[in-house]
Automatic annotation (TrEMBL):
GO molecular function: sodium channel activity
Assigned protein family: Belongs to the amiloride-sensitive sodium channel (TC 1.A.6) family.
One cellular component (GO) term of this entry: membrane
Compartments where located: Membrane
Statement: the UniProt record of this protein carries the keyword 4Fe-4S: no
Lineage, uppermost ranks: Eukaryota, Metazoa, Ecdysozoa, Arthropoda, Chelicerata
Listed Basic and acidic residues bias regions: 82-92
Name of the protein in its database record: Uncharacterized protein
Topological type in the membrane: Multi-pass membrane protein
Assigned keywords, A-Z: Ion channel, Ion transport, Membrane, Sodium, Sodium channel, Sodium transport, Transmembrane, Transmembrane helix, Transport
Organism field: Larinioides sclopetarius
Predominant subcellular localization, coarse grouping: membrane
KW Membrane (keyword) present: yes
Stretch list, region Disordered: 64-92
Gene3D superfamilies, A to Z: YojJ-like
Length: 267
């Protein structure tokens, strides 16, 4: 079995790419790593989805991981990146805002499932098994919903997904895995993390000119243009004045040469 091509059942649902509730994969098909995303549990704001791009781990294998971090700094509206600083608002004490983009998607999916199926499966972090339909100790009855009610819930879920904004600090982790079988037949496995390059590649989105910056920029250009125009006009005027003075001086000389002369004799 090729470990690099092994299908992980946890890859069945990538919540980060869910944009339409119909396209979201049913969590009932997931059986591994239940019920908690350990990365989300430790740091929800900087979490990476542990269910994405996973591989199966077998015994008697030596595995080396080479991670590399990429950081992208986005800009809030009205810029095209349209990010949001998720988490509590500064002016609100009792907040219910999600702490991350992934948690926002989770909450949208969970609320929609509560309306559609009568139970709230869909979240990675849960407080009790009773929140999950397929693991609940109590039997639940799926409510009957008419077409209009289903359509309303669907529209509400899609609107909720669209309202989720990517965090302004976007961290991406790429890694390469090198595997080697151990010589002995033990059931142990060894996992190593080797950071060959500790540098972090940062992509920074530079904002375009705002209204104030535009007026400042245009004003500077106008001032520069007016200064150049005044300087050029003064230089041209100075040349005309000098040429006029030279022409007037030459005209006077010509008049003196053309003027008649007379001689007076006195006997």
């Amino acid at each position: 079995m090729d470990i690099n091509r092994a299908t992980d059942i946890n890859r069945a649902m990538d919540i980060n790419r869910a944009t339409d509730i119909n396209r979201a994969t049913d969590i009932n098909k997931r059986t591994g790593n239940w019920p908690m995303d350990i990365n989300t549990a430790t740091d929800i704001n900087r979490a990476t989805d542990i269910n994405r791009d996973q591989v199966l781990f077998f015994s008697n294998v030596k595995r080396k991981n080479h991670p590399q971090e990429t950081e992208e700094r986005l800009l809030p509206p009205p810029y095209q990146t349209d990010c949001r600083d998720n988490g509590p608002s500064k002016d609100v004490k009792n907040f219910t805002n999600p702490n991350s983009y992934e948690m926002c998607l989770d909450l949208c999916k969970s609320e929609n499932n509560k309306g559609m199926h009568g139970c709230g499966f869909g979240m990675k972090m849960i407080m009790s098994e009773d929140y999950l339909c397929f693991l609940s100790k109590t039997n639940y009855n799926q409510p009957y919903l008419g077409f209009k009610r289903q359509r309303d819930l669907l529209d509400k879920g899609i609107a909720c997904f669209k309202n989720c904004k990517q965090g302004c600090l976007k961290l991406q982790y790429s890694y390469k895995i090198n595997e080697k079988d151990l010589d002995d037949e033990s059931t142990k496995s060894f996992i190593y993390f080797e950071v060959k390059n500790s540098e972090v590649t940062i992509f920074r989105h530079v904002p375009l000119y705002g209204s104030g910056e535009i007026f400042s920029h245009v004003g500077g250009l106008l001032g520069c243009w007016l200064g150049i125009s005044v300087f050029t006009f003064t230089d041209i005027l100075e040349k005309f004045v000098k040429k006029g003075a030279i022409w007037k001086k030459g005209l006077r000389k010509m008049k003196k040469k053309k003027a008649p002369t007379s001689e007076f004799r006195q006997d």
